[in-house]
């Protein structure tokens, strides 16, 4: 039986890695990283119908991804088990972000699931605990749970909220899927970049250590970077495949977007200090008995 309350849409924003340095490797094989996670004002949306049964269902079909392999399902199941929740949920996804694009689509979806269901199921877990659970699903999930632009270290779980200018970004998808495990498994991947202090950060002094490897494996990414860099400072985000260009105003970003070849897809978004997901949580908490 499904509750008749009209579900809310919960934001699941994109992110950019404004830089990504690989500074070493742990004994367990995980890479030691430094990165700047910029939350964007654009992304997917998820809606949750709370059910009296304990089943978890995703009504939106993800091509090539079994329901139980979806990070949304895994996040809901993890929270349900951890808190001993007897209720379930049916989940709708308004999917806008590309999979395998390096802009955090799956990790953001998982974080939104944790945050929304923690509220809707009345679990009462703290943000710290949700972030801890999220780390079991992926290194990027805690950033989205905390919902702030952040300087990240470790495997991405050591997060320091930071404030930077709200630049505009043209984010372009070359239409390919890049395997993160394959890139991190490359023998030639740089793994000894010197660590830096956040106070020393500038875009010009940093880079993406994965970019050269991805460009060798995927010439379309190299082609896209060569095109964008003529207009603005540009870089690949995460392990790709998406590439972003940085602008100080929206009009210039959209002007360049209009020049893009039709075979590349794109969107323009603004960097925000506070995630739309955090704003939604604030909004629902301000309305008594919404769930």
Q: Would you give an account of this structure?
A:
- By secondary structure, the chain is an alpha+beta fold.
- It has one domain (1-291): Ribosomal Protein S5, domain 2, CATH 3.30.230.
- The protein has helices at 71-83, 105-120, 127-135, 141-146, 180-184, 211-217, 219-228, 250-259, 276-285, and strands spanning 9-25, 31-51, 56-58, 88-94, 150-154, 158-161, 168-173, 234-236, 243-247, 265-272.
- Strands 1, 2, 3, 4, 5, 6, 7, 8, 9 and 10 form a ten-stranded mixed sheet that branches.
- β8 and β9 form a beta hairpin.
- α1 packs parallel to α2 and α6 (211-217) packs across α7.
- The longest helix is centred in the middle third of the chain and has 16 residues, at 105-120.
- The two termini are 16 Å apart.
- The model has no long low-confidence stretch (mean pLDDT 93).
- C-alpha termini separation: 16 Å
Tally of helical runs: 9
Q: Given the helix and strand composition, which structural class is it?
A: alpha+beta
What letter string, H or E per element, gives the SSE order?
EEEHEHHHEEEHHHEEHEH
Rough outline: globular
CATH topology tier name: Ribosomal Protein S5, domain 2
Name the helicity range.
Answer: 25-40%
Uncertain segments? none
Please report the first level of CATH classification, the CATH class.
Alpha Beta
Question: Could you report the average pLDDT, rounded to the nearest whole number?
Answer: 93
Provide the CATH architecture. 2-Layer Sandwich
The major beta sheet can be summarized as: 10 strands, mixed
Total domain units: 1
Rg on CA atoms, Å: 19 Å
What is the total tally of β strands? 10
Query: What fraction of the residues are assigned to beta strands by DSSP?
Result: 25-35%
